């Protein structure tokens, strides 16, 4: 069965996916391979809208892959993506954390340049978060609170 991990930036989707399966897929990595440049450069050159179109294509291709997939935090922005995730037989696991914890983690992560983080103030990001949380909760088949838990504990909780 395909398993999608969803959640805001910094919720640990890629880390947890890699622990759940050696054969996991990171959607952002697939997209970067497809577009041939870092996501931040693509946003700057072609805009978020075009990025979302490619993200939808990739999501569609992966739905029946049978693999564990770490999505990008904005995958729920497009109604079409929410429909795909909601109607698929895949397990959709929402890694839930509060905004201040996520903001702290994203700010500390200097390896990943995230345009949505770079281009928005903390207050704007909080609004984006609030809007997305409703979507994550709507389409999740399982919700795991990750705050204060080690990756190992989170994996165990997913597997029980
Ligand atoms: C985005 C999150 C990123 C990446 C892109 C857009 C978003 O993925 O897909 O920068 O809109 O929240 P992560 O959630 O893995 O950081």
Task: Kindly summarize this structure in a few lines.
With 160 residues, the protein is α/β, with parallel strands linked by helices.
Give a verbal description of the structure:
The protein is of the alpha/beta class and 160 residues long. It has one domain: Rossmann fold (3-Layer(aba) Sandwich). The chain is 56% helix and 12% strand. The protein is built from nine helices and five strands. It has helices at residues 13-20, 27-35, 39-46, 48-62, 79-87, 99-108, 115-118, 122-139, 151-159; strands spanning 3-6, 25-26, 68-70, 91-96, 142-145. A five-stranded parallel sheet has the order 2-3-1-4-5, with helices on both faces. The longest helix is centred in the C-terminal third of the chain and has 18 residues, at 122-139. It is globular. It starts with a strand and ends with a helix. Shikimate-3-phosphate (S3P) binds next to α7. Shikimate-3-phosphate is lined by residues 9, 13, 28, 39, 72-74, 114-116.
User: Pairing-aware structural class of the strands and helices?
Assistant: alpha/beta
Judging from the principal axes of the Cα atoms, what is the shape?
Answer: globular
Number of helices: 9
- Broad CATH class: Alpha Beta
Q: Give the uncertain stretches in residue-range form.
A: none
Count of domain modules? 1
- Strand order, main sheet: write it out: 2-3-1-4-5
CATH homology-level superfamily = P-loop containing nucleotide triphosphate hydrolases
- What CATH architecture do you see? 3-Layer(aba) Sandwich
Helix content: 55-70%
Share of residues in strands: 5-15%
Q: What average pLDDT do the residues reach?
A: 96
Ions, cofactors and other ligands present here are:
shikimate-3-phosphate
Any idea what the radius of gyration is?
A: 15 Å
Instruction: Give me the strand/helix succession.
Output: EHEHHHEHEHHHEH
């Amino acid at each position: 069965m395909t398993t999608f991990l969803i959640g805001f930036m910094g919720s640990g989707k890629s880390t947890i996916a890699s622990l759940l399966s050696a054969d996991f897929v990171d959607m952002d990595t697939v997209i970067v391979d497809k577009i041939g440049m870092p996501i931040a450069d693509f946003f700057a050159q072609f805009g978020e809208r075009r990025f979302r179109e490619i993200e939808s294509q990739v999501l569609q291709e992966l739905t029946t892959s049978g693999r564990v997939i770490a999505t990008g935090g904005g995958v729920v922005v497009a109604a079409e993506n929410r429909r795909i995730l909601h109607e698929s037989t895949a397990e959709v696991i929402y890694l839930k954390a509060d905004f201040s914890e996520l903001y702290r983690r994203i700010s500390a992560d200097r390896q990943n340049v995230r345009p949505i983080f770079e281009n928005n103030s903390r207050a704007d990001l909080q609004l984006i978060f609030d809007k997305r949380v409703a979507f994550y909760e709507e389409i999740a088949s399982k919700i795991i609170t990750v705050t204060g838990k080690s990756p190992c504990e989170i994996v165990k909780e997913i597997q029980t």
